[in-house]
Fold this sequence. Notes:
With 191 residues, this protein is α/β, with parallel strands linked by helices.
Amino acid sequence: MTERSDPQVQVLITQSVAILVDGNNIERSIHDLCHDKQTMINFDTLIPRLLDNRGLNRLVYFREGKQISEKLGERLHAKYHGSVRPCHKSADIPLTIKATQLSSKVDTIIIMSGDSDYIELVRHLKGEGVRVEIAAIRQTTSQLLIDEADYFHEIKEEDWFTLSPKKGARKGGKKHARKTHRATGEQQISN
């Protein structure tokens, strides 16, 4: 009996994916490339491209520092049930711990970072049978990290956007509120 293959057969991919973001590394890479600190990742276009019809298990954005946008956390939670985790120093250790914890729960871990510090983590996860993908900006990504990963997703200019300056914001960084006096129509500027 001869088997025939049908080229129209669809393959259902049921991989479970965790996306772990080294926020400082990705932000710094974008800012270095475009020379604008108001430029951010557009998760609405990037996440579906990274998943490529696979299921999202976790999305965790690790960020060093105290100035973490509440809007980012709210948006990641609302759209992807994701979370933002503040880090004391750098994201390397908390991201590595989370990846190790998730290694038995997911099929694939996507690390959003170009930092060569993650090479040993990639090796460890692959040894545990986890597919490891890197998503980063090629110009700022370690070639050793790319070579060690199972797949490399290049983050390109179409994956980010630049925030518009707020109305009333001046170059000096101070915000001035404009109030119009109703009786005279004169504007007053307050600091």
